[in-house]
């Protein structure tokens, strides 16, 4: 059924979801990535369901299991079997939040798509306000955290399929999305909200991720090498600069040109440092523009919808 592959379906302008459903029958899709959230899934579902029922819109809820090792996937499957409006998307392995979101978007059929964290840190009660803003005619409704770095986080959003198409071209979504919204001339509304603490479970960030590895697989060994190059370059440049200053300031006397000869040995350090640093800088920039190592859509093996399970 889905053998055509995502790019082929994109070309026809239809998502897999639109293929099996009546065209345009869903107004609002909510996509939630879930990784080891067994303590939260059911609570998330109940709160979200209550809000969705008040929407006055045909809606669907897409729970994406990012290869959880706990009972998250079972719970999602059970919910999707009992509730027509819930779709479970199950990744074959743990691919990271970004990949989970992309996979979910591939199946979202709504005219407005909401993405949000699955741990109730983004209150679902704000969705009606987002939908109202969207109905007034914007492409993107961006939920801006009150604190501490409001514009760096783009987890909680509503967008039209047209905006989704543009944004799907962006590889490192978190980093570039805000710029792309502006660049593409998409109309957006920004709503400020207060992010809540997690209701249960733990944040999925690991120490390695916090040290600069991204968990979505877009950063690899080469970006670590780039960082090392930048560090070496910086140290070299700094050492050269210190040495040069020392030679110039040392009270050997300006009258004796011979005392400036050691400067020639500081020069390669200075220039070498600069070159190394910018080499690392360029390498890192290229790394960020490279496509992800594994395309998330290859990871979908099993797909349940409307009470029926189907395998591609
Ligand atoms: N998540 C995911 N895959 C991951 C990490 C996180 O699907 O590899 C989901 C997670 O289940 C949650 C959301 O992404 O619904 C946000 O994750 P988390 O709460 O760990 O991030 P934080 O809020 O701490 O930034
Ligand atoms: Mg969280």
From TrEMBL:
It comes from Parapusillimonas granuli. This is Glycosyltransferase family 2 protein. Residues 29-157 form the Glycosyltransferase 2-like domain. It is a multi-pass membrane protein. The chain crosses the membrane at residues 228-254, 260-283. Residues 1-23 are annotated as: Disordered. Keywords: Glycosyltransferase, Membrane, Transferase, Transmembrane, Transmembrane helix. It is found in: Membrane. GO terms for cellular component: plasma membrane. Pfam families: Glycos_transf_2. GO terms for biological process: lipopolysaccharide biosynthetic process. Residues 9-23 have a biased composition (Basic and acidic residues). Its main location: membrane. It comes from the Bacteria. InterPro entries: Glyco_trans_2-like (IPR001173), Glycosyltransferase_2 (IPR050256), Nucleotide-diphossugar_trans (IPR029044). GO terms for molecular function: glycosyltransferase activity.
């Amino acid at each position: 059924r889905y053998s055509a592959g995502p790019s082929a379906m994109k070309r026809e302008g239809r998502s897999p979801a639109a293929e099996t459903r009546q065209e345009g029958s869903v107004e609002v899709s909510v996509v939630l990535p879930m990784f080891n959230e067994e303590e939260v899934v059911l609570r998330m579902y109940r709160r979200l369901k209550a809000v969705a029922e008040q929407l006055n819109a045909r809606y669907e809820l897409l729970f994406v299991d990012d290869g959880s090792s706990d009972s998250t996937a079972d719970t999602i499957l059970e919910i999707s079997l009992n509730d027509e409006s819930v779709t479970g998307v199950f990744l074959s392995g743990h691919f990271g939040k970004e990949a989970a979101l992309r996979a979910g978007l591939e199946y979202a059929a709504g005219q407005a798509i909401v993405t949000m964290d699955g741990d109730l840190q983004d209150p679902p009660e704000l969705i009606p306000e987002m939908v109202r803003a969207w109905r007034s005619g914007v492409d993107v409704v961006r939920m801006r955290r009150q604190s501490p770095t409001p514009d760096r986080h783009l987890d909680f959003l509503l967008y039209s399929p047209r905006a989704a198409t543009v944004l799907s071209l962006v590889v490192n979504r978190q980093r570039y999305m805000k710029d792309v919204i502006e660049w593409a001339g998409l109309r957006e509304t920004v709503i400020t909200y207060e992010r809540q603490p997690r209701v249960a479970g733990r944040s999925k960030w690991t120490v390695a991720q916090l040290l600069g590895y991204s968990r979505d697989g877009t950063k690899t060994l080469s970006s670590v090498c780039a960082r090392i190059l930048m560090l070496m370059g910086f140290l070299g440049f700094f050492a050269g600069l210190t040495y040069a200053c020392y030679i110039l300031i040392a009270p050997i006397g300006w009258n004796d040109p011979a005392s400036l000869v050691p400067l020639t040995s500081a020069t390669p350090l200075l220039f070498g440092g600069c070159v190394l640093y910018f080499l690392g800088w360029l390498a890192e920039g290229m790394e960020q523009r490279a496509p992800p190592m594994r395309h998330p859509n290859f990871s979908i093996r099993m797909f349940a919808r409307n009470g029926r399970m189907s395998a591609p």
